[in-house]
Design a protein that fits this description.
With 366 residues, this protein is of the alpha+beta class. It folds into 2 domains: 11-230, Rossmann fold; 244-364, RNA polymerase II/Efflux pump adaptor protein, barrel-sandwich hybrid domain (OB fold (Dihydrolipoamide Acetyltransferase, E2P), Beta Barrel), CATH 2.40.50.100. 23% of the residues lie in helices and 37% in strands. The protein has 9 helices and 21 strands. It has helices at residues 46-53, 102-109, 115-129, 144-156, 174-190, 202-208, 226-230, 235-239, 341-346, and strands spanning 11-18, 23-30, 34-39, 61-66, 69-73, 78-79, 87-90, 162-166, 194-199, 211-216, 219-225, 244-255, 260-265, 268-273, 282-288, 292-295, 306-317, 323-330, 333-340, 354-359, 363-364. Helix 4 runs parallel beside helix 5. The longest helix has 17 residues, at 174-190. Residues 1-6 have low confidence and may be disordered.
């Protein structure tokens, strides 16, 4: 897996595909490293986009450029077949060969590479995904999470310029999903490689994605850096009940007596269950808008321990007439709370007003 320059041009995917019961028309831009998540309901076109990028949909028209390499450009009558596109593709099912052990499955991936560079890529994949101790096992002896890690390593052994992941955790239970997520984070952080990740799970996307593309019925609703997208005025329409804030913070303190960690961010901090993370570790916090309440006075004698001051920036319409989304400035961070209209009126909330933000629960998502 070759390190690519940080100055490498980004990726461009412009595609149109027409079928009897579905049409795709997308124009995507995403960075040349990190995870871009395609997010939307079933039938929105996520997997179709991946298949077009991979060259598996010959009817797809448009342009596919990954960094400096152009794989498809109808204006120049250019269409590279799948086998000529240096990509890795990981499906919902690991698709490993039962008659081969893990080492044999991984070496199968080396058939598309040559010499020592492929061996070095495989060695790096083994280390990044922590599967060096699994080489002698057969697929039936692996957990679902282990099988997917092997499948990802096999894809990386081909030294791809792009890694496509089509809901790689859809077939895993909650425990196995938690097992594989840290390894995907490590790939995101350590590889100079663009990854396109398909999911309809908001918690996965919040944890993994740098860039988010929202799809609905074959069209792009919105795209951009995930933290900014979550704070758009039309966030209620984009995310529905999952409207949230994504904050960057770090582990600031450990209370061993109560088994808690304090996560500090620009504007406040929250106490969460101690998961063993070291002090100073950068993390992401996902705060669901429905889990935030507001009060005009500093909370006293309350079981809600996570609260901090903020200033109302805007009061926005929500999906239902009975609700409002309140945008708040908390130091250098923005937070949003979902309140009823009755609560907004009872507190006489208005832009510029100082309040106290109360957080019922938060998710440490990475």
């Amino acid at each position: 897996m070759t390190e690519h320059s940080h100055q490498q041009p980004g990726c461009e995917v412009r595609l149109q595909l027409q079928r009897a019961d579905f049409s795709l028309d997308v124009d995507l831009r995403f960075p040349s490293r990190g995870i871009t998540a395609l997010f939307g309901a079933s039938g929105s076109g996520k997997t179709t986009v991946l298949r077009c990028i991979a060259g598996l949909e010959s009817e797809g028209r448009g342009r596919v450029r990954i960094g400096a390499d152009c794989w498809q450009d109808d204006a120049q009558a250019l269409f590279l077949p799948t086998w000529r596109r240096p990509l890795g593709y990981v499906f919902q099912e690991a698709c490993l060969f039962d008659h081969l052990d893990v080492a044999g499955n991984l070496r199968y991936g080396l058939k598309r590479t040559a010499g020592r560079s492929g061996e070095a890529a495989l060695a790096q994949a083994l280390e990044l995904l922590g599967i060096g101790g699994l080489l002698a096992r057969r697929p039936h002896q692996l957990s679902g999470g282990e099988r997917q890690r092997v499948a990802i390593a096999r894809a990386l052994a081909t030294q791809p310029r792009l890694l496509l992941l089509d809901e790689p955790m859809a077939a895993l239970d909650a425990e196995r999903r938690q097992e594989i997520l840290p390894w995907l984070e490590r790939l995101r952080d350590e590889l100079a490689l663009p990854m396109v990740y398909v999911s309809h799970a908001a918690d996965e996307v919040a944890r993994l994605a740098d860039t988010l593309v929202m799809l609905r019925e074959g069209r792009v609703l919105a795209q951009g850096p995930i933290q900014a997208l979550m704070l758009r005025d039309d966030a209620p329409d984009l995310f529905g009940e999952d409207a949230a804030t994504l904050l960057s913070g770090h582990v600031a303190e450990r209370d061993a007596a109560y088994g808690l960690l304090r996560i500090a961010f620009d504007g406040g901090s929250v106490w969460l269950r101690d998961t063993g993370l070291p002090l100073g570790r950068p993390v992401r916090l996902r705060l669901l808008a429905r889990d935030i309440s507001l009060t005009l006075d500093q909370p006293q004698a309350t079981s809600v321990q996570n609260h901090w001051p903020g200033i109302v920036e805007a009061i926005l319409p929500d999906r239902h007439a009975s609700q409002r989304l309140v945008r708040l400035r908390c130091g250098g961070s923005q937070v949003q709370a979902r309140l009823t209209r009755r609560s907004v009126d009872a507190l006489a909330l208005a832009p510029g007003q100082g309040v106290w933000v109360q957080l019922k629960s938060a998710a440490l998502v990475g």
